[in-house]
Design brief:
The protein has about 250 residues and is of the alpha+beta class. The chain contains seven helices and 13 strands. The chain has helices at about 5, 80-100, 110-125, 165-170, 170-175, 180-185, 190-205, and strands at about 30, 35-40, 40-50, 50-55, 55-60, 65-70, 70-80, 130-140, 145-150, 155, 160, 215-220, 225-230. Strands 1, 4, 5, 6, 7, 8, 9 and 10 form an eight-stranded antiparallel sheet that branches. Strands 11-2-3-12-13 form a five-stranded antiparallel sheet. Helix 5 (about 170-175) packs antiparallel against helix 7 (about 190-205). The protein is globular. The N and C termini lie far apart (about 85 Å). The model has no long low-confidence stretch (mean pLDDT about 90).
Length: about 250
């Protein structure tokens, strides 16, 4: 007996029910850097509220930090529509856990593992989600957790992480504060907050796709998530600008 006799003739409409398959080849509306650093009692994470349409600063009230329950923050850079798609996936997971009867609670490490599988699956289908994501919170041992996953499904962890331009401009500042995992235990909440706020100021000065309004969150064991979504940069000064000549470190 042939395959057609058993299952019927092949129907290509099953794979293309609504016309040709379409993939995103380049993001249209994007968010820039997400910056995060661990400290002895938790994690601080921040991202500005701008979504750019190409080089146009189009949307100035886009929140790119997403809480998951009371113990995890997910920060998104990259394509905003893909961010919204991932947000719907996370909302489904959150509802299933809220109304489920397993008794288990997902922590930041679990969410990061789940998102890495989602990103890798889409990459394997040659239709990636054009985002880099930072996941901040606590792991299964109740230790501060900070890790990244990108559009290829590549993951890594570090005491400080930054996406976009922040990987070039903010990371050197954060690594001055916390060089390795051993240094995390000596970093206070105030030191971490000050460092992240300084990074957001540097990014506003140097990154043309950034904004002076941003969201910042502190995740701690006792206080859970403290999220502020309309912070404003303080003590801005462009006095250094008249001494800059060309690119790099040249001065007039």
């Amino acid at each position: 007996m042939g395959t057609d006799d058993a299952y019927g003739p092949y129907n290509p409409s099953f794979l293309q029910p609504n016309g040709p398959k379409t993939h995103t080849k380049s993001p249209a509306v994007t968010g820039t850097s997400v910056v995060a650093v661990k400290f002895k009692d938790g994690v601080v994470i921040a991202a500005d509220n701008l979504a750019s349409y190409g080089s146009l600063a189009r949307f100035t009230d886009v929140k790119r930090l997403r809480p998951f329950k009371s113990n995890t923050i997910i920060g998104f850079s990259g394509d905003v529509s893909d961010m919204q798609f991932i947000d719907r996936i996370l909302l489904t997971e959150e509802n299933e856990e809220r109304y489920g009867s397993t008794g288990h609670s997902l922590n930041a490490q679990n969410i990061h593992k789940y998102l890495s599988k989602v990103m890798y699956k889409r990459r394997s289908e040659m239709n990636p989600l054009w985002n880099q994501i930072l996941v901040a919170g606590f792991d299964g041992d109740d230790k501060p957790f900070l890790s990244s996953v990108d559009l290829l499904g590549t993951t890594f962890s570090s005491p400080s992480l930054a996406t976009g331009f922040g990987a070039h401009l903010a990371q050197p500042l954060l690594r001055k504060l916390v060089e390795d995992e051993d240094a995390v235990g000596s970093i206070t909440r105030e030191q971490a907050l000050t460092a992240v706020k300084e990074c957001m100021k540097v990014l506003f000065y140097r990154d043309a796709r950034s904004l002076d309004r941003y969201s910042i969150a502190v995740i701690t064991r006792e206080g859970g998530i403290e999220l502020t979504e309309d912070e404003r940069l303080e003590a801005q000064s462009w006095a250094f600008a008249d001494r800059i000549k060309g690119y790099g470190v040249q001065v007039v």
